[in-house]
Fold this protein.
Amino acid sequence: STLEDFEVPRHPKIEEMGDRVVPFGKHVFIERSDFFDTEGPEGAANNNKPPKGFKRLLPGGKVRLKYAYVISCDEIVRDPDTNEPIELKCTVYPETRAGVTPEGEARVKGIIQWVEASTAVKCKVNQYDRLFKTEEPGKESGDFTLDINPESLSTLDGIIVEPSVAFDALGIMGAIRAENEKETEKQGSGEKIYHSNLSYQFERS
């Protein structure tokens, strides 16, 4: 199918990082948590109503794909064994491109993240949490290692990202390695150095 490119900010708050190109096409992936299935098992467990304050996609409802178009969910394709949704068939509203709300229409409140399916890149992500479980490690026990958070690092496999994100990540890792090699040559040690100015922040909903 034909792809359309959107230019979006590389970082939502740092303009000097510039823009990146995000492809859009007929098939996209969304987060499972961004769709509440009022007609399926999770809906049955909640009296066929969405959670209070839920503004994302519902059967028959509308939501905006961030930076792109408003879509509506018209049909749900289900797993024959579990009855869980495996595909959503939706309508795209071309007149809503890039944040536009047509005159006379109500603004769609829900906005969700998405990745175009045919260009998506699978990767492994290291997700970091607090290193310590307490604000003052070792204060009570005298051994700070007892307060290390065992869940400070989780590795997520099979994560799907846009091609521009994958490209940026490779470039940043290359820059980190290059900086590390220069520092190692200067200091004559094998200690790795990771510079905060090269960090990459993923925008999260």
